[in-house]
Amino acid sequence: MTEKFIGYFQLVEACEQPGCPVCRCLEEDSRRALRTLLYEQVTDPETRRRLRDSWGFCNWHTWMLLDAETVATGAAILYEDLLRVCRHRIERLRDRPPPAFVRLFCWLAGIVEQAPARILPRIVKRYRERARCPICARLRFTEAHYATTLVEFADDAQFDRAYQRSTGLCLPHLLHALELGRGAAGLARILDRTLSKWESLRHDLERFVAKNEYRNTAPVTAEEADSYHRAFEVMAGRRGLFGTDLHRGAAGVPRVEDPPPMVEQHALAARALEDLRIENRRLREALAAARSERSIRGDGGGS
User: Fold this and answer.
1) Domain segments of the chain: what residues?
2) Please, are residues 173 and 144 in contact by the beta-carbon 8 Å criterion?
3) Residue 69 confidence (pLDDT) above 50
4) Which of 98, 186, 197, 260 could be disulfide-bonded to 102 (CB atoms 3.0-4.6 Å)?
5) Are the beta carbons of 20 and 168 closer than 8 angstroms?
6) Rounded Cα gap, residues 168 and 102, in angstroms
7) ∠137-143-147 over CA atoms, to 5°?
8) Residues 145-189: pLDDT tens digits?
């Protein structure tokens, strides 16, 4: 990369705004992409196919649609189609019995009654293996370009001045730049500038905490008042951009859940074993009670 392109100027402009410049660029790119899609591509067959494959947009981009009130009709058209397709998929797959070999395994293992709960339904598996949100799929490449641009133009005077005025990169995007820019000459400058900004933010946080002590009489500055908001974005990135870890696999993509850590596996196994022991004890007590009642009835019938 030797020439300045639109991504460079977008980053320079984003540096003049609060927050991580890469996060801001990606958010603005998302809004533009959604507006374009809703204005121009609602009836496009390829757009419809990609959305069906991904079961709609991700959570972040779905709720971002609310910001585009003038294109509500386009969103309604898309989601009418998505609901119809989703309903059809679930109706088609929900009543399919597990494969014969799975049913046989469950029978041999003595868990026939628990088989439905232990077998992952086809529709659940299909949902977890769905395609990536089409806006996110596009942003992955854009994000890489922004991170590469940061490193490639770190020594550029115009960009350096803009970056010094910025909030600096968030932790996720700094790590992304480190990953893509290994060995690049400008990486050290980006690191130095960013770490310096983080240290300044830490001091703002310290002063904010100190000034909230009940004996303090010094006023809280604007920089100190919003310091924890800025710290949120530094540590986690812009709100909504990186999603949650609730259903996140090891590689950062929502997939079929990874097995729990070994310690957690042992804890789960211990709990499962204890549950089995309790259930076994309950069944024994119920059987003993039934035998006792039968015995009493038998004695009463003979008297």
Assistant:
1) 6-95+130-236
2) no
3) yes
4) 98
5) yes
6) 54
7) 155
8) 999 999 889 889 999 999 999 999 999 999 999 988 877 778 889
